[in-house]
Amino acid sequence: MSNDTTPPTVTRSLVVKATSGLDRPEAVNQALTVAAAAVAAGAEVSVWLTGEAAWFGLPGRAAELELEHAVPLADLLEVVLAAGTLTVCTQCAARRGITEDDVMPGVRIAGAAVFVEESLRPGAQALVY
């Protein structure tokens, strides 16, 4: 009989959809703050930039968001890009004229089917901001 009382490791993934941009800076900053905290906790993290948040997939655009008492959005995106997945919604990109050539290195453009696939994986938790 083992005396090991260490709980088994459960791999969880977090899918965060950010739907706001400069129009709602607190919402988008909160989404990326939660995602970066999940990366730091060792979770598999996927962030989806939709609606006005799609602009933050482009180089330099995150610097446009300034929010008092908050980690800069560019820093949060860097954390997610280093250890997670950052995606711009296909339709959102198309509506804004954003192409694969426009986004930051490491950012992908994908559609709803991929979002649903990630969100429905066993152990996944999806949050929408």
Please give a structural write-up.
- It is built from four helices and five strands.
- By secondary structure, it is an alpha/beta fold.
- The chain has a single domain, classed as DsrEFH-like (Hypothetical Protein Ychn, Chain: A), CATH 3.40.1260.10.
- The protein has a five-stranded parallel beta sheet with strand order 4-3-2-1-5.
- Strand 3, helix 3 and strand 4 form a beta-alpha-beta unit.
- Helix 1 runs parallel beside helix 2.
- The radius of gyration is 16 Å and the shape is globular.
- It starts with 12 loop residues before the first strand and ends with a strand.
- It holds the Pfam family DsrE.
- It comes from Sediminihabitans luteus.
- InterPro entries: DsrEFH-like (IPR027396), Sulphur_relay_DsrE/F-like (IPR003787).
- This is Putative peroxiredoxin.
What's the number of helices?
4
Question: Can you tell me the CATH class?
Answer: Alpha Beta
CATH fold naming: Hypothetical Protein Ychn, Chain: A
Count of the domains: 1
End-to-end distance: 47 Å
Overall 3D form = globular
**Strand arrangement across the biggest beta sheet:** 4-3-2-1-5
| Rg over alpha carbons | 16 Å
Mean pLDDT value? 94
Strand content: 15-25%
Largest β sheet strand count, sense and barrel closure: 5 strands, parallel
Helix content estimate: 25-40%
Structural class of the secondary structure composition? alpha/beta
Low-confidence stretches are none
Order of helices and strands: EHEHEHEHE
DSSP strand count = 5
Name of the CATH superfamily? DsrEFH-like
CATH architecture: 3-Layer(aba) Sandwich
Organism: Sediminihabitans luteus
Pfam family, one: DsrE
Protein name: Putative peroxiredoxin
